[in-house]
Amino acid sequence: MSQTLAFAFARNFLGHAPNWYKFCILGFLVANPVLLYTAGPFITGWLLVLEFIFTLAMALRCYPLQPGGLLALEAVALGMASPQAVYHEAEQNFPVILLLMFMVAGIYFLRDLLLYIFTKLLVKLRSKLLLSLMFSFSAALLSAFLDALTVTAVVITVAFGFYGVYHRVASGRGFDDEHDQSDDALVHEQRRADLETFRAFLRNLMMHAAVGTTLGGVTTLVGEPQNLLIGEIAGWDFAEFFRHVAPVSLPVVAVGFLTCIALERLRWFGYGAEMPESVRAIIAHWEAEQDRKRDAHDRLRLAVQAVTAIFLVAGLALHIAEVGLIGLSVIVLTTAFNGVIEERRLGHAFEEALPFTALLVTFFAIVAVIHEQHLFTPLIEYVLAQEGKMRLGLMFVANGLLSMISDNVFVATIYITEVKQALESGAISREQFDLLAVAINTGTNIPSVATPNGQAAFLFLLTSALAPLIRLGYLRMLWMALPYTITMSGTGLLATIYLL
Q1: Contact assessment for residue 182 and residue 162, using Cβ atoms and an 8 Å cutoff
Q2: For residues 367 and 383, what is the distance between their CA atoms, to the nearest angstrom?
Q3: What are the backbone dihedrals phi and psi of residue 276, each rounded to the nearest 5 degrees, phi first?
Q4: Which has more pLDDT, 257 or 387?
Q5: pLDDT given at position 3
Q6: Which of 377, 374, 363, 463 is nearest to 408 (CA)?
């Protein structure tokens, strides 16, 4: 009986994840209480952060919510973070939660329009280099005025649509047939090589676009949540913020686009994959088929989505409401005027975002541990003790390193608060405060492209339904982000030291 129960537990615990992975998670859960009472909360806290990063790295083996959630629950049970602290972190990030709940679902109801536009571009624009630059530049431009997660959701929707079209045909199905896109068993043998190349092609575009959201996000007051926080404390309006960060942000943007060109030309780090002609032909045929079948009802649906998309861009650019509320408005408008009134048809739109929302709140529990156990305090104190250009450079580096493993909004909050207190106490001048604020902003934005947990948009991409389809795991994201991390972070650091 006991053997049967043990076997059932082993099979049920984390489902079909590999046994070695299950033993790792159980080992973490057993070791953490022992370490807490032997090595102390500071060391155990850092190990907990590394354990959580491990669950993100293994996202293709097991969705991080379950193992990461167990680690977070244990941390709270051990007193390393209080439930109130976790709630406080979630409350501070409520606009992001609201965004994920409603904006990503809103983009789902614009997918027909997005596929229509991007299919035209994909078929007509045959240069991979120009296509990569277009994805990167478009993501950067939109992220400067909208939200990086929204832009990422758009690109994911487009890539998911393209993948679905080809995978159906490669599996011998019709364009409109029901099909499991995660199952390669039916893919014809002669199309398998093209499928792998197409996956690499989509990985390239997704990574260029993800980095593009960072390039645009660092430049403006509304580009990233921490920008708003820093701008509010510094008292900068939109124009002042742009002017203050421009000596660092603009060189980084230029180097980011040059890196995109170089990677596509040199075919390094997994870039340079071309779309197979057979894939292009299938997508072109699908486009022609869609155009042929499109009736007045379909054209009206596209028109409604187009008008709603204009409302979305205008609403986000003018900040008429919180991003999540604008997303809810998009859901209401597109569904009401396109006849989507059944609950079951609405439910599909939320399938992608809600698991990630739950994962993000779990991540806030780890952030609460970092805060409650003062894991970043030694580094913060060391940086603030420096002077002149050394302090500026170290401020950029420290914010970058911490943002790679933690929430960059959390890191920016800690540093800008400390710097504000130094200004109010007379320890630094207003000019020094402005320079340090720029170093904090660019430090939390630019080097954080190194890891998926550094940027919410990267983490969203990693845990999306698209990532396993195109074989985009944690380690591959690290590798593909590495050249961008080196060139952009190096440029940002040099600009912080010599141009500010």
Answers
A1: no
A2: 21
A3: -60, 145
A4: 257
A5: 62
A6: 363
